[in-house]
Amino acid sequence: SKPLSTKAAIHSKPVKMKLFIATTLLSAAAAFSPARTNTPIRSVTSLDASKCGNFDFDVIIVGCGVGGHGAALHSRAQDLTTAVFSGQDVGGTCVNRGCVPSKALLAASGRVREMRDSAHLSEFGIEVEGEVKYDREGVAGHAKQLANRVKGNLEGSLVALGVDIVDGRGVLTGTAHEVKDENSGKIYTAKDIILAPGSIPFVPPGVSVDEKTVYTSDGALELNSVPEWVAIVGSGYIGLEFSDVYTALGSEVTFIEALPNIMPTFDREIAKLAERLLIRERPIDYRTGVFASEVTPGIPGEKPVTIKMIDANTKEHVETLEVDACMIATGRVPNTQNMGLEESGIETVRGFIAVDEKMRVLTKHEDGEVVPNVWCIGDANGKMMLAHAASAQGISAIENIVGREHAVNHDAIPAACFTHPEIAMVGPTEEQAIERAEKEGWTLGKSTGSFRANSKALAELEGNGMAKVLYNKDTGKVVAVHIIGIHAADLIQECSNAVAAGTTVQELSMMVHTHPTLCEVLDEAFKGAVGMSAH
Amino acid sequence: MKFIAGISSTTALLCLVSWQGAVQNNAVSAFVAPKVPTNTLTHLFPSNNDITNAMRLETALNAEAIKITMPALSSTMKEGRVVSWLKSEGDAIEAGEAIMVVESDKADMDVEAFEDGFLAKIITDEGETAEVGAVVALIAAEEADIEAVAAGGDAAPAPAAEEAAPAPAAEAPAAAAAPDFDFSQLDMPALSSTMKEGKVVSWLKGEGDAVEAGEAIMVVESDKADMDVEAFEDGFIAAIITDEGESAAVGTPVALIAANEADIPALKAYAATLGGAPAAAAPAAAAPAAAAPKAAAPKAAAAPKAASAGGRVVASPLAKKMAEEMGVDLSTVAGSGPGGRITAGDVTKAASGGAPAKKAAAAPTKPKWQPAEGVVAATPTARALAKKAKLDLASIEGTGEFGRVTADDVKIATGEMKPKSKVAAPGAPAPVELPDGLVPFTGMQRAVSNNMVATLDCPVFRASREIEMDAFNALYQQVKPKGVTVSALLAKAVAKAIEKHPIVNSSFRPEGTFFNKDINIAMAVAIDGGLITPVLKYANERDVLELGENWKELVGKAKSGTLSPDEYNSGTFTISNMGMFGVAQFDAILPAGQGGILAVAGTQEHIVPCKQSVLGLKKISKMTVTLTCDHRQIYGADAALFLKTLNEVMMNPSQLL
Question: What is the DSSP string of A107-150?
Fold first, then answer.
């Protein structure tokens, strides 16, 4: 039941945010049953014709982001000959222009914020003499170096496992089993083809992007300037993380959000607390219910960026802003144009490729038929635009290719927003859970844990935050967990595992949590769910 | 009429009074301006027109009754035990007098009355426990009313009174001024037992904002700490009475909360009638300027503002002097200082024909950007600050990118920040920035101020003596590597001397001399923005190393504001040491409740005759100490002998180890 309902929910939304997540393959493992094979990895190169029958490879993967990489690794683990079309972008968005470099910016700017917060430091008995300074180029350099390093590691692991890397972009030819290298025109064949082309930032109509004064996350990550005032269009994960970076470095921020609420994709209760911790206490203001209908780039020192805003409903002009920079963080769209989908009879909706729960490509979204031996994973299928979700889907696709039926449980995939403090979640929001419980006829339970009552959080003088556990009162199973607070992103895994394994709050309440750690915030919530007190 | 007092949340204690339906105007105003309460002592107002059973308490209390409720002595305190009643039923009580001792989760504390009256009824007996906010005793205003009040107390203790609250609104007569709808009043909570008033550090919610129970709505600075104060009812902030940075006495209203959003305007109007509250007078005066037509060009808008000063010219002394020299008519100059005051810079600007000197210098590098029509050239923070200060952004000169008004620009306009000093000539020292004008006391500074005034009733005398320091210094150099500090050694030496002269460790009581068995040495510590006296308890009995470690910990806590009351108010004798600053001699003010304070000055070297030495002279180190004593129980001879003993201890310091 889960994959179908998830699919419907995702596709009904205009644009789904790409989540910036520092990911490891391990984090995706929660969505899987334990590995059922343990085939030793061959140390030969992949061009073993006898093994592949009439094809050059068992599997060709188009795209080498975290999803393609995950699929390639698992493909080799199953002893399949494998080629990856990298399009000269090994690592893809996450590693080069997303989760990874943004973590570097957040780490650096977070330290600046901490060291400039003299009130907070003095509570520790620490005093910083003089001004805390940073070098913008140094901070940007850290992000660049990190991306290069992770990219190198990723490429290294592919080579070491005997995956063939084709530099060009791969496109379908219209003939089954064929992928063409767009650069050389050379055609490669494989029994199965996995499409993992990823996504690109969405730029709304009326917005001119020069990537200098008006930019998407691609340009923002280069940190070409720290503007006095920057407008961020969109208040999802990307916008929120960048507001954290910018305000820490001394900028002021104005959010422009088209929906009636700020942070519309978050659980409302969490969003409310986030607004207090991440927006209200910072030099940030926002407009909601308005579109940035016209964004004109500026010239630094000569002319500001002009943003005209219209009411989301009446479409009437409401305000014009003149700012130093404007970041467009309005979500991401699939990178599926001109890759031979039409020729292969595959229809897309706003670029999204339809897949079934096994990641098999369908000819169209409504009642589509399975396109044999073609699979699609990651942002391009729009199921869950997260790096680790893509990787999980890649592993799942390979499982299905080798004949072991598998479907990813997207409800058990965690997500995180790396602001200070962090926000993390697994499963539906409370609003969605209420709806789901009503529709499916079960009783929703809710229990919360508080950071203010946690010794470790208090030792860190970071008592702000909460963890909310939503569970099925009839079965005790955990449905969703939402956390905002210090190290939330590291705390969510326990909950994700619980959702994946169907662990009940009764079981969780009896599991021992290390003292004194932040995990006890969850312990409090689990125990609270069964009427126990944690302290 | 509903009354709730001393409701505690996890972070703070709130006093809130809410009205249902109409109430009599006199009751409202009487409640709004109570005397400065130290505790959650509050009135219960009589109702003359309710005859329902539920309201029996009020009817019985036609005589004016005052409830004493269990105060919240710490933010985590949920209930308190009455250790002892210092007054009995029927006793007269004076404001400021300690009437009971309460044991909280942190310490035992005296609880003071804040109004004169007579203790009519003790509800919570000694040894019994009451929840925070529960009524523990009733006070009658007049001796004749004791019986009536006591009878009322029997009939309905606190919980019953609360249950009685939802009295039918319709039965009450229409009130003159109080609004005819549900609203509640947010009072300045007592965040500590010694807190008399609190400063609103920041409002987390603005007027018109919805608040939910449990949501933090303001941050209050008490004499001890900043605390979040949470709302415990849903509603809307209708009017903020005490603005950020302003102080309000404990128990006085700081905001009004409407139950329904629609009632905000009416409640806001009502708030304006609640005179006497320390409302923001200055910003209000600036309001007419903000109301001026906004269409005027940004710089031109400054001109009419000068005229609006109403004939009275407010200018800094330097501005006046410069205006005279330059022949500038001050009445034509727009003031950019606090409250529209004319600064020297404004005069210079006016003299040079309005062209700001700064602009001229910046002109070649930064071409002037003309914002498009309708654009507010101000950063988000600047906007918020200007809105709060009720300043028109157009009247503020922007120094940001594209001439944008920044947060600093607004702060300069409001006087909160000094304009950045002009770049000094090469080689010349940077100009010294001197503070100017009134800086409101912090909670701690006010506490110090009050404590100092409280010492005026005590007759004191002072005695000074030189103490020979060579042996002490030698010993110190010897034990310094072990981590022994001068403070610890000094405390121990004084404590040892006190052992022989316990009278200097005594406290005055009207009945006689109260000898303190423990020798608890308080030592004054100057901390940023205040003064506090952490206490080394049992200083005579403890090892100097241990005292040194304890002292280090106490100083750390003092700096972070985390000393518990017991750690700073349990002293029996105080030392104030300014020796490290080279002070030759000084005397200290005797803290209330203690018998003596020793002012320790710096060590100085002297050449004195010495027959044994070759030249007939020798060098010795001496420091001057001055003892201030309460002469009501301590006499000059006591002080002299104590100082003599202290000198002996200091000359033979090995006994300190």
Answer: HHHHHHHHHH-HHHHHHHT----S-----HHHHHHHHHHHHHHH
- B92, two tokens: 């007269």
Q: Could you confirm whether A317 is annotated as catalytic?
A: no
Per DSSP, helices labelled H in B200-342 are: 264-273, 281-291, 302-307, 317-326
| Sheet of strand A290-296: strand arrangement | A290-296, A305-311, A317-323
- Rounded Cα distance, B313 and B65, in Å: 51
**Distance between CA atoms of B100 and B168, rounded to whole angstroms?**
37
Residue A293 main-chain phi, psi, to 5 deg: -80, -25
Strands A325-328 and A229-233: parallel
Q: What is the pLDDT of residues B361-414, one digit of tens each?
A: 334 444 578 888 888 899 999 998 888 888 888 888 889 999 899 999 998 888
Phi-psi group of B566: left, alpha or beta (phi > 0 → left; psi -120 to 50 → alpha; rest → beta): alpha
> Side chain identity at B645, as an amino acid letter?
T
Contact A304 B379 (CB under 8 A): no
**Residue B532: per-residue pLDDT:** 86
Predicted local confidence at residue A472, as pLDDT: 97
Band of the pLDDT at B335, cuts 50, 70, 90?
A: low
- The whole-model pTM stands at 0.53
User: What CA–CA distance (Å, rounded) separates B610 from B633?
Assistant: 40
Secondary structure of residue B194 in the 3-state scheme:
coil
Nearest chain A residue to B212 by CA distance is A272
Q: Which residues of chain A lie closer than 8 angstroms to B404, CB-CB?
A: 228-229, 322
Q: Which of B216, B380, B556 sits opposite A253 (nearest CB)?
A: B380
Query: What count of Cα atoms within 13 Å lies in the side-chain half-sphere of residue B225?
Result: 19
A137 touches chain B (CB under 8 A): no
Distance in Å from the first CA to the final CA of chain A: 39
- Comparing alpha-carbon positions, the chain B residue that sits nearest to A251 is B379
Strand order of the β-sheet with B183-187 is: B2-8, B13-19, B183-187, B253-258, B235-240, B210-211
Can you point out the beta strands (E) in A377-421? 414-417
Separation in Å, CA B277 to CA B22, B187, B189, B243, B543? 22, 12, 15, 11, 53
Q: Do the Cβ atoms of B367 and A252 come within 8 Å?
A: no
The answer to whether B400 contacts A228, with C-beta atoms less than 8 Å apart, is yes
Which DSSP category does B171 fall into?
A: G
d(CA B319, CA B324) in angstroms, rounded, equals 8
Question: Beta B108-112 vs B98-103: how paired, if at all?
Answer: antiparallel
Instruction: Residue B221: name the closest of B235, B202, B238, B236 by CA.
Output: B202
pLDDT in tens, A16-74: 344 443 333 333 334 444 444 444 443 334 444 445 568 999 999 999 999 999 999 99
- Mean pLDDT calculated for residue range A116-133: 93
CA-closest candidate to residue B532, choices B225, B226, B250: B225
Q: Report pLDDT digits (tens) over A491-518.
A: 999 999 999 999 999 999 999 999 999 9
pLDDT of residue A349: 95
| ipTM, interface predicted TM-score of the complex | 0.76
Closest by CA to A238, choosing from A268, A212, A199, is A199
Residue position matching structure tokens 């969605």: A432
Ordered strands of the A414-417 beta sheet: A414-417, A422-426, A478-485, A466-472, A444-450
Q: What percent of chain B has pLDDT above 70?
A: 69
pLDDT band at B281 (very low <50, low <70, confident <90, very high): very low
